[in-house]
Give the backbone structure.
Amino acid sequence: MEIRSMIKFLIKLSIAVALVYWLFQSGKIDFSILQDSFVAHKSHWVIAFAITCMALFLVAIRWKKILEAKSSKKFNYFDILRLTWIGNLFNTVLPGAVSGDFVKLIYARKIDPNLSKTFLLTSVFMDRILGLFGLLFLMGIASIIKYSELTAISPALANLIHLNFMIFAGMLLFILSLFLPQRFQQSVFNLGNKIPFLGKQFNKTLAQFWIIGKNKKNVIFLILLSMFTQMMNNLIFWTLASPFFEYAANAPRSITILDGLTFIPLGFVAVAIPITPSGIGVGHLAFNTLFSYYGVTNGASLFNFFLMVTIIVNLMGVIPYLTHRRELSDAKKEMENGALDDTSELGSTQTG
């Protein structure tokens, strides 16, 4: 399994290197502006690092709230912050080999052994879904506000705005499905029971989502928290990149931070897709394309700013990791011995 993971990682790394090399050779990436930014805009970097750390703290709160939807314990905030930071570290330095999510799960199970593997896996997935929803919700609101103005600029921008609406509608339907009445949930479980082989696992996983969705106020709070967190991520990007916007001669106009909310989130979505480590190459290509709709020609270079801040903050996760390395080793042994085997019955919404 480790050999297979390493091969997958090397393939992803090769794709990243190939994309960056192609963009560099075609003149779409200029690494020199990183140095220019460090020299001319030091205060912007200080602000960006501060906001990135604040966003990390908020993400830890979100996962803590999700875990407590089923756990009988109140998780210590700093334990969850430590898990989140260590997970980000592993996702940065060893993506595809030792998953950061794997690290988070074995630590979380050590804090509360009563949590099933299915619920822990669902909690991580739900955390990502809520983060994505916050991102796309912001994008949808900005697209509504700027609809008339942006669709009049070009057909390409009009298509982008319409795509935003479609994605937003899909995410909204998913969130609303968490609040389905129990009789509808039971009907879905009955259908799941008729699915050969995978039906039982399907019901067990779905039950965990509905456990999290039982507390509607908590879900709404988590969505608002996600929106605020994603607003901070967009602000980080804008703070670092805006002094270096290079407009083409035929650019429709300069872009505002509200304009940025209509397309920067899509770039973040592309980065989140696990095609390459940390979205390297894929993120460069995505932001190069998205910025070009607004007449900005150096979108790939601008992504380096956000990428640099994110990687540095993630690497700082080595501090909590080194102070708890022995605990991780013990937890990993428990995992290998089956400590995360799911033995609970999760076939109905009554579970937990």
